[in-house]
């Protein structure tokens, strides 16, 4: 669809974005239909989502969605400003963002994992396990931060000699 919208219809970047939107929408609808079909196999009282349960989930999900959206929108604004400075600035910014991703993505993954871990333990009524899981996640993040910081400072020190 990307090739057809960009090259065939001449829509450029808008065509690529539109193709992605359409493909993701189709994927979401098909995934929901497949989920509902597979749920019929199980003998349970599952028919549809309970409205009260949905509200409970939204109270937890909406703040997270807003936070992640705010970060993404902010990065788009920064990227648009950097783009105006030219190719050299854009290359430097891109390299810096890749280094930042190496540092941030693993810790964000640990954060997402501990979020699921917490929710599962609350659901299972094992609230006492949450504290130990949080402690372990904090230690993992701290150790990764120290190691990645040392590596970046070491590599950065030697990179200055090359340029």
Structural features, described:
With 163 residues, the protein is mainly α. 86% of the residues lie in helices and 0% in strands. It is built from 5 helices and no strands. α1 runs antiparallel to α2 and α4 runs antiparallel to α5 (128-162). The longest helix has 37 residues, at 87-123. 0% of the residues are buried. The mean pLDDT is 86.
Total number of helical segments?
A: 5
End-to-end separation: 43 Å
Mean pLDDT: 86
Helix fraction bin: over 70%
For the report, how would you describe the main beta sheet? none
N to C succession of SSEs: HHHHH
Shape: flat
Task: Give the uncertain stretches in residue-range form.
Answer: none
Roughly how many Å is the radius of gyration? 22 Å
DSSP E strands, number: 0
The share of residues in extended strands comes to under 5%
Structure class: mainly alpha
């Amino acid at each position: 669809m990307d090739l057809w919208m960009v090259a065939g219809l001449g829509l450029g970047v808008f065509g690529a974005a539109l193709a992605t939107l359409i493909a993701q929408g189709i994927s979401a609808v098909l995934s929901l239909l497949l989920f509902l079909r597979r749920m019929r196999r199980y003998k349970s009282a599952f028919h549809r989502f309970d409205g009260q349960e949905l509200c409970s989930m939204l109270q937890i999900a909406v703040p997270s969605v807003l936070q992640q959206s705010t970060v993404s929108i902010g990065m788009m604004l920064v990227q648009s400003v950097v783009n105006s400075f030219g190719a050299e600035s854009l290359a430097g910014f891109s390299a810096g963002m890749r280094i930042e991703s190496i540092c941030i993505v693993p810790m964000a993954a640990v954060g997402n994992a501990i979020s699921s871990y917490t929710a599962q333990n609350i659901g299972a009524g094992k609230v006492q396990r949450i504290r130990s899981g949080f402690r372990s996640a904090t230690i993992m993040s701290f150790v990764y931060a120290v190691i990645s910081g040392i590596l970046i400072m070491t590599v950065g020190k030697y990179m200055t000699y090359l340029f």
